[in-house]
Amino acid sequence: MSNEYKYVDGQFIYIDPKTGLLRNILGIEDEETLLFVESGAVTKRLQELYEQPIRIRGVVDLFSIHQHLFQDVYEWAGKKRVVEMSKDGKQFFPIENFDTALVYIDSLIDSHRVLSTNKIEDLAILLADILDNVNYLHPFREGNGRVQREFLRLLALEKDLVLNLNPINDSTVYDRYMTGTVNSDLNELKDLIFELISNEKE
Q1: Which residues partner with 15 through β-bridges?
Q2: In terms of Cα–Cα distance, which of 141, 132, 130 is closest to 22?
Q3: What confidence tier does 112 reach under pLDDT thresholds 50, 70, 90?
Q4: Which of 95, 122, 139, 189 would bridge with 180, disulfide CB 3.0–4.6 Å?
Q5: Per-residue DSSP letters for 65-130?
Q6: H-helix segments, 2-90
Q7: Measured between alpha carbons, how far is 114 from 117 in angstroms, rounded to an integer?
């Protein structure tokens, strides 16, 4: 599966034209170093969210999560992208229509809020729909996958349920997650979420 992203950034809003890397507040100019530092910083911030979870009020908290996770690395943490992006020839949601998408995702979150915890399969279907829409929106220049997986974990937590879409030592979950999101395969996403979600605390 290709991971090639394309975007239009003629004004070099995100990319340093000298290094070809994402502009970062640490001034890192080496790709491997940036990946290492970013991964460490995000892992630390994820642990903080496990210890003190953000309560999901709506899609606004997608941006709160991104800001929290990437605040140590990027100045634009928590801010919606201002460039068009595509992957494998498929364009993500046009930036000029973001507000419409945000309203729709909020309506899905409202539906999640009133859905009974006992209806696990219905919750899995709805969470798959939320994930698919958030992925298509792709609101950030970098970090969308990590943010949306944490967003779903916290939505499940609102129902006192456990959902880990990034388990250690289980690459098949990530592969299925990627297949589902890249292909907008709601059945794959629903089946994956339904298999993983539980009321057993970690």
Answers
A1: 22
A2: 141
A3: very high
A4: 189
A5: HHHHHHTTT-TTTTS---S-EEETTEE---GGGHHHHHHHHHHHHHHHHHS-TT-HHHHHHHHHHH
A6: 31-51, 60-70
A7: 9
Provide φ and ψ at 182, rounded to 5°: -65, -40
- Identify the structural domains of the chain with CATH numbers, from first to last: 5-196 (1.10.3290.10)
Assigned token pair, 24: 């970062």
Q: Letter for the amino acid at 98?
A: F
Alpha carbon distance 146, 73 (integer Å) = 15
Q: Alpha-carbon distance 201 to 163, whole Å?
A: 10
Query: pLDDT tens for residues 35-82?
Result: 999 999 999 999 999 999 999 999 999 999 999 999 999 999 999 999
